[in-house]
Design brief:
Blueprint lengths: L2 H19 L7 E5 L6 H17 L3 E5 L6 H8 L7 E6 L1 H8 L11 E10 L1 E5 L9 H10 L2 E5 L5 H13 L3 E5 L3 H10 L4 E5 L4 H5 L4 E6 L26 E8 L4 H15 L2 H10 L1 E3 L4 H22 L5
Parallel strand pairs: 1-2, 1-3, 6-7, 6-8
Antiparallel strand pairs: 3-10, 4-10, 4-11, 5-8, 5-9
Helix pairs in contact: 2-9, 4-11
């Protein structure tokens, strides 16, 4: 072995040790988004990742690893090294999927270290005005007593679907679920009259409501109206109480991540979520920033697991 190569071999362990001794982070961080690019996840994940990159001083690269309702990307993070260089950007599917899928290869409470809630968005019920006479939640309920209304969601087991079941249980609304492969097709068929209404996130509906192709009945999630649909009342304003759900987004690391790394991530995330420019940018897209403690994020997952367990069992929903 020649001298330069020998020196390189001898130096390699020293260089590795030096890299490990450097403060976290000292190379790019991967942020796994377990759904396809271009959807609701990307609308909040990518602006957040841009700002987190600046706060950490290292690139935060969004990695869309879609499949199986979010399970493929989530499982990959659960199996990743607990070093802070692979993070998970998840939402309320962490509370639904364990109740829907048999043989799930991750536990949302055991396998992840919560860092912070990041944001939330609202859902809405929007009807085809040529098929449905209703203009509010009470008249929609009355109309459903005369005939069963068909509603579309992004798919079986998604939070809009489970909320639709919960809403029907608690209000007595007669509805039939029509699952689609994504939000777009559900909205398209509501506009086309193949179904009576769509139950999806507000950002997916705004342009069609403003164009008069759909009539928004109510906004779901939170106590305030959506800035994108300020004329549309909330469920509580519509006289429906005790039934609500917003779609939340949160940041997680693999379980076992060192405390000092988690502390750095919490501090960086808090700094990002305190930026008024980011809050306004996301507000215009239909998202609210919702910073939290790790404990509050963990509690949100626990609450959703229990809530959706009851709905899944009552509606007899199963997924393989």
């Amino acid at each position: 072995m020649n001298l330069p190569r020998l020196l390189a071999v001898l130096a390699a362990p020293l260089l590795a040790a030096a890299a490990l001794a450097q403060p976290y982070p000292n190379h790019p961080v991967r942020l796994v988004v377990p759904f396809p690019p271009g959807g609701g996840f990307d609308g909040i994940a990518r602006p957040f990742a841009e700002r987190l990159s600046a706060a950490l001083g290292q690139p935060v690269v969004v990695d869309n690893r879609a499949g199986a309702g979010g399970n493929i990307g989530t499982e990959s993070v659960a199996r990743s090294p607990a070093d802070g260089y692979t993070l998970l950007f998840a939402n309320d599917y962490l509370g639904t999927n364990p109740n829907l899928y048999k043989g799930l290869k991750y536990d949302p409470l055991r396998d992840f270290a919560p860092i912070s809630l990041v944001g939330s968005t609202q859902m809405a019920i929007a009807v085809n005005p040529a098929k449905v006479r209703a203009t509010d939640a009470q008249s929609l309920l009355a109309e459903s007593q005369q005939r069963t209304l068909q509603y579309g969601t992004p798919g079986v087991g998604t939070s809009p679907h489970l909320f639709g079941e919960l809403y029907a249980f608690n209000t007595g609304t007669r509805v039939q679920h029509v699952p689609y492969r994504g939000t777009g097709p559900a909205v398209t068929d509501a506009i086309g009259g193949q179904i009576d209404f769509a139950l999806v996130t507000v950002p997916a509906l705004v342009q069609h409501v403003k164009a008069g192709k759909l009539r928004a009945i109510t906004v779901i999630g939170g106590t305030t109206r959506s800035p994108l649909l300020p004329e549309v009342p909330t469920l509580a304003e519509n006289g429906v109480r005790g039934v609500d759900h917003d779609v939340w987004y949160g940041l997680f690391a693999p379980a076992g991540t060192p405390p000092e790394v988690l502390k750095r991530l919490r501090e960086a995330t808090a700094a990002v979520l305190a930026q008024p420019e980011l809050a306004e940018r996301l507000r215009q897209l239909g998202y609210d920033l919702t910073p939290s403690t790790p404990e509050a994020l963990s509690e949100r997952v626990k609450t959703d697991l229990a809530k959706w367990k009851q709905v899944v069992e009552r509606a007899k929903i199963t997924l393989e």
